[in-house]
Write a structure and sequence with these properties.
about 400 residues; alpha+beta; conserved putative lor/sdh protein from methanococcus maripaludis s2 fold; Elongation Factor Tu (Ef-tu), domain 3; OB fold (Dihydrolipoamide Acetyltransferase, E2P); 3 domains; six-stranded antiparallel barrel; about 35% strand; elongated
Length: about 400
């Protein structure tokens, strides 16, 4: 080993150029193995053209349901509650017997009023007979005018007594009838708030129960001023199109369809009509109360008073509207936007004006063309101004014309 090194040194000292040849041969393979920079491929993104379809524009609100009719059943006469004739929570018909208040005192009052009426009628007949006799005697000048007037006054007094007796009889008859408490409407009866044996109607009319009618049912909500003006325009168009009377209530005439959905329901499965609106806008809130009416025929009813509801009704038709998936829409300080791929496969940022949601798709009112290729997947890999490798939703390469 030592001998080889000494020999190599002698050769290099005798032939200096040999050193450079050896150095070049050693370094040549290292140069050939050096890494070269390769530009990464553009990121793959999924693109779709906007869906074009005819859509109906809706205004959407929240509201609450309310009963079509709700009546408090109260005692109209005083007395002890004698019996109850219904099962709480059941459906009752109008004029069905619900309660009976002890009728005996009122039966006695009716009998006394009847007897008094009979007596006054008898007295009237006697006074009328006396007047006829007095008139005959007066004509023969056997009776003075004063006595004749006295007989006439007695007759008139008896006639007035009949009127008072008839009124007392009718009152007694009504009071006796009020001892049988009947259902005022068709509907579902609540529980009894008073038990048998309690004194009711003494002083104030005692609340006995309530009856509620669920079919149909109302839904109340509020419109702001801007939406109110749009609704009024729709109503005028409907009245004009149907040739209705413009002087009548537009809400009841136009019959604009109204759709309702509950908190646990998808969409708006219940259809009714716009029924009523208040006569003025509340200046404190800038809104007006509006009511819709919906059929509710199921038993038990599907819609109960007091439920939170989602409501919407149509205000216009938009042919060939453009829709995109909601996941493609981004938002920043400049507003809502979409990322689209141009003819050079470069990402562009488009500011848009989104509209309503239809089946998970968002209507784009402004800022989008039908031929635009919208990025729906891989948005996090796309940057405005950068190039991408667009693919259709079916994972097939797309052409640049979209």
């Amino acid at each position: 080993m030592i001998y080889n090194r000494i020999k190599l040194r002698r050769l290099m000292s005798r032939f200096p150029w040999l050193f450079f040849i050896v150095l070049t041969l050693v370094s040549l393979p290292a140069c050939q193995d050096a890494n070269q920079y390769v530009k990464p491929p553009p990121p793959a993104v999924t693109v779709e053209n906007p869906l074009k379809k005819d859509v109906t524009e809706y205004l959407e609100f929240t509201g609450t349901t309310d009963a079509f009719e709700h009546v408090e059943v109260r005692a109209r006469v005083s007395g002890f509650l004698q019996s109850i004739h219904f099962e709480p929570g059941t459906v009752v018909a109008k004029d069905q017997l619900l309660f009976v208040i002890d009728p005996k005192p009122y039966e006695a009052d009716l009998a006394a009023a009847k007897a008094e009426l009979t007596a006054t009628r008898v007295e009237f007949k006697r006074a009328q007979t006396e007047l006829v006799r007095a008139e005959a005697l007066f004509k023969k000048q056997y009776l003075s005018d004063t006595d004749r007037l006295k007989r006439q006054t007695e007759r008139d007094t008896a006639s007035a007594a009949i009127g008072r007796a008839e009124a007392k009889f009718k009152t007694a008859e009504l009071n006796l009838g009020y001892t049988r408490v009947l259902a005022p409407i068709d509907g579902r009866v609540s529980r009894n708030f008073v038990d048998v044996g309690n004194l009711v109607g003494e002083g104030d009319p005692t609340l006995l129960t309530t009856v509620t009618r669920y079919d149909p049912i109302f839904a109340y909500f509020h419109l702001n001023e801007r939406d109110l003006l749009r609704v009024m325009a729709v109503q005028r168009e409907e009245i004009k199109r149907k040739g209705l009377d413009p002087d009548k209530d537009p809400s009841s005439q136009a019959k604009i369809p109204l759709y309702l959905g509950l908190a646990n329901e998808e969409g708006y499965p219940h259809q009714g009509v716009l029924d009523f609106a208040e006569s003025e806008v509340n200046t404190e809130t800038g809104t007006i109360e509006v009511r819709g009416v919906f059929p509710n025929p199921l038993k038990p009813p599907l819609l109960l008073p007091g439920l939170f509801t989602r409501l919407r009704f149509p205000v216009g038709e938009h042919p060939d509207a453009l829709l995109v998936s909601e996941r493609a829409i981004g938002s920043d300080q400049g507003g809502d936007y979409l990322l689209v791929v141009n003819d050079e496969d470069v990402v562009e940022k488009r500011q848009i004006k989104p509209g309503q949601v239809i089946d998970g798709m968002r209507v784009i009112d402004k800022g989008l063309e039908a031929t635009d290729r919208v990025i729906t997947n891989g948005i996090q890999r796309a940057r405005p101004g950068s190039k991408v490798a667009p693919q259709r939703r079916e994972n097939l390469p797309t052409n640049k014309t979209g």
